[in-house]
Amino acid sequence: MDIVFIEKIEVATVIGVYDWEKTISQCLTLDLQMAWDNRLAAENDDISKALDYAKVAEAVEQFAANSRFELVETFAERLAALLMQQFGIVWIKLKVTKPGAVATAKGVGVEIERGCR
Ligand SMILES: Nc1nc2c(c(=O)[nH]1)N=C([C@H](O)[C@@H](O)CO)CN2
């Protein structure tokens, strides 16, 4: 299977376990790898056969804007499930980074892999 990827997309969302985090919007950085057979799209030079990364990015931004979770784990799990269902993705690897959450680290977060390649 081939991969369609989106690197370091920055989204705003309400996320965090502490009370002060529930009243503000914070930035998350996401890296996505999605399995897709690119041959049909390439053969016909046809976007309708491709996994349109612009449409995926739009869905990611919309999901983040409308979600409110405590854990990055929950954010990752729900987003992965949504994208797999909405776009017919059979395998996804998703890294969610919360920059600045730990003062001494550049970023912290989770990486999950769901489905089969
Ligand atoms: N495994 C996790 N640990 C922590 C999370 C999380 O989402 N997953 N969240 C926090 C706080 O919200 C923190 O990011 C605030 O700075 C702490 N640990």
TrEMBL record:
Pathway: Cofactor biosynthesis; tetrahydrofolate biosynthesis; 2-amino-4-hydroxy-6-hydroxymethyl-7,8-dihydropteridine diphosphate from 7,8-dihydroneopterin triphosphate: step 3/4. Gene3D superfamilies: 3.30.1130.10. CDD domains: DHNA_DHNTPE. Coiled coil: none annotated. Residues 4-114 form the Dihydroneopterin aldolase/epimerase domain. GO terms for biological process: folic acid biosynthetic process; tetrahydrofolate biosynthetic process. Its EC number is 4.1.2.25. One of its GO terms (cellular component) is cytoplasm. SUPFAM superfamilies: Tetrahydrobiopterin biosynthesis enzymes-like. Keywords: Folate biosynthesis, Isomerase, Lyase. NCBIfam families: folB (TIGR00525), folB_dom (TIGR00526). PANTHER family: DIHYDRONEOPTERIN ALDOLASE 1-RELATED. Belongs to the DHNA family. Catalyzes the conversion of 7,8-dihydroneopterin to 6-hydroxymethyl-7,8-dihydropterin. This is 7,8-dihydroneopterin aldolase. The gene is folB.
